[in-house]
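Contributing new records

If you add data, match the layout below exactly. Sequence lines come first and carry their own label; structure lines follow with theirs. Keep one chain per record. Anything else will be rejected by the validation script.
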Amino acid sequence: MLLMKTTPPIVCLTIAVAVQGFAPLHQARHHFPSFASLEPAALRMSSNPLEELLSGVFKSGTKAKTEPEPEPELPDVVIEPDFKLAAIFLGLGVLLDTIPYIQLVLGPLVTVLGLLFLVQTFRIRFTFDKEAFELKQGDSLKDIGDNIVVGGANRWTYDSFVNYDFFPEGWIDQPQGPILVYFKETQTPSDNWNEGPGKSANSPEAIANGAVPGQVHFFPALCNTKQLRSEFERRGCAKLD
């Protein structure tokens, strides 16, 4: 008793700490938490960041590749008839028929051409289907028969085109429109390519200047030529620059 009363407080505290230091290990663990218990739960549950990154890369690489959607098929088109050329020739013919001397030759010729264009505008239809450009007859789209120049059907696949154009050049974008439509194709047997205007169009000089050999076709502009040009472009018909 005397010792406890006379011992200074600092000495008592030192003795208590020393006794605690000799406590059994299993008791000490109850007093001092381990570092593992202090680790945040979120950190313990997370995996290696590099492993997560690689896993994400490989997973994304194994996704099924989406097939490209097929291009929609172009619908069949009948080009609108255009009576503008017939009207121009008929009007010009009537005017020329009033001029002396000219009315004897040129006037009647232009008038006859105007009448021919008028009839053909009613009769011929220019059509596009999935495979080819074709000339048909009337609104019922009957078969027009064989080509009167080189024979064979008046039907040409788009991949056989090597060139097309409208003459006079530049008139397609003018109010009066062009007079002639031109195209060149390789579907017709090559034995016929040099017949008619094809002789000059396939001459060595023309080929040297960039022309492509083929069968030449001309027909009067009896339809909506802007619509016709648009369909040539949409169907992938080749055209020389």
